[in-house]
Amino acid sequence: MAEETNPDAEGMDADLADEWAAAMSEAGDAGGDSGDLDDEWAAAMSEQEVKPVQLDQLGAAPSVSGLGSDMELIMDIPVTLSMELGNTEIAIRNLLQLTQGSVVELDRFAGEPLDVLVNGTLIAHGEVVVVNDKYGIRLTDVVSPSERIKRLK
Fold it and tell me: What is the rounded distance in angstroms from the CA atom of residue 26 to the CA atom of residue 20?
């Protein structure tokens, strides 16, 4: 079976990554009208220790059912990545009464980290960031592979 690659998609991914990197560096350089608030955020961000993820660590994972460590077989499989702000249970009676402007209370407090889910499985926690008027999420805690396996059972 011949492997097909889409050079346009790879170029678009690289362009998008470059755009985010430029926006993040501009956000760090931007002073301006926000005054002390920007300074507080800049100080807080500079205190964080950012470590790049080593993708080689993924290849070192034990093989499942003798499939080997060839990660290339699964690298192009699409998954659904979602962020969960919170949730609640609501009776259908109350659900039907919701209108524009209604407020639904969630089970989380303001400032609590969001859950990052891949295909419905919790993989990390993070916080919302805004770059060039688009939402993003900065991962603050990644769930260990052993903990993910425990949650599946």
Answer: 10
